[in-house]
Write a structure and sequence with these properties.
The structure is a single chain. The protein has 237 residues and is an alpha/beta fold. The radius of gyration is 20 Å and the shape is elongated. It starts with a strand and ends with a helix.
Length: 237
């Protein structure tokens, strides 16, 4: 799978990969939300990932993936100074733009060895970085809206997907509750809800160890019995 915000770069790399005879390109994406959706759908063995993209960089994108989605990674960059960081981030290899066929062939050989070793064997899921998420990429019409975590009241999951809720509205995101709980400092209060502790206004305690949170924007969030103890601890209650 290829992720690059430049259409011509995606097309050229796809052609070069096909010419190797060793790679099937299952998807080519132009931004992080497209990429996360395609990764979930296609489950590729390998990801050719542009480092510098607007809104969400290649490094940031890796931190937004569930561990079971993470493939082996080859970074693609126009700047040689990113090479060292690419290997620090446990990439299998890196390619400098414009990509040369001979250099690409060596990267494909490395990928084949890494994929054969499985996760943790040279770029698989266990080796990917998990930086803190400070802005959540969401879909707003045909644009990507980056919602600062500090503005989030809650995140909810349902049949229609995952939605980030703020005082100004709610937005669909491809990120999962598990990723946002682990990397965006949002607290799990229910199997289908996360809450921003800093945005809690009050907690109404009910019967049977159940509770309802009201946020500063007057959104209500259920608290299940299982998660009430963690909520109390987070608030020092």
């Amino acid at each position: 799978m290829i992720v690059d915000d430049e259409p011509l770069a995606r097309e050229e790399l796809g052609r070069l990969l096909s010419d190797t005879g060793q790679v099937q390109v299952v998807a080519a994406c132009g931004n992080a939300l497209e990429a996360i959706h395609a990764l979930r759908r296609e489950r590729p063995d390998a990801l050719f990932l542009d480092v510098e993209m607007p809104d969400v960089s290649g490094f940031e994108l890796l931190g937004m993936l569930d561990e079971d989605l993470a493939p082996a990674v080859v970074f693609v960059t126009a700047h040689d100074e990113f090479a060292v960081k690419a290997f620090d981030e446990s990439a299998v290899d890196y390619l400098l733009k414009p990509v040369e066929q001979d250099r690409l062939a060596r990267a494909v050989e490395r990928l084949q060895r890494a994929v054969a070793k499985g996760p943790g064997g040279g770029g698989g899921a266990q080796a990917l970085p998990t930086p803190e998420i400070t802005r959540i990429p969401c879909l707003a019409g045909r644009a990507i809206k980056l919602v600062p975590v500090g503005e989030v009241d809650l995140v909810r999951s349902g049949e229609a997907g995952v939605f980030v809720v703020t005082a100004k509205g709610e937005y669909f995101t491809e990120l999962t509750l598990s990723v946002l709980e682990a990397r965006a400092r949002l607290l799990r209060c229910h199997k289908q809800y996360l809450v921003n502790v800093d945005r809690i206004d009050e907690i109404n305690l009910g019967d049977n160890s159940l509770a309802v949170i009201t946020t500063k924007a007057r959104h209500t969030v259920p608290v299940s019995r299982r998660h009430l103890t963690r909520l109390r601890a987070a608030l020092g209650l």
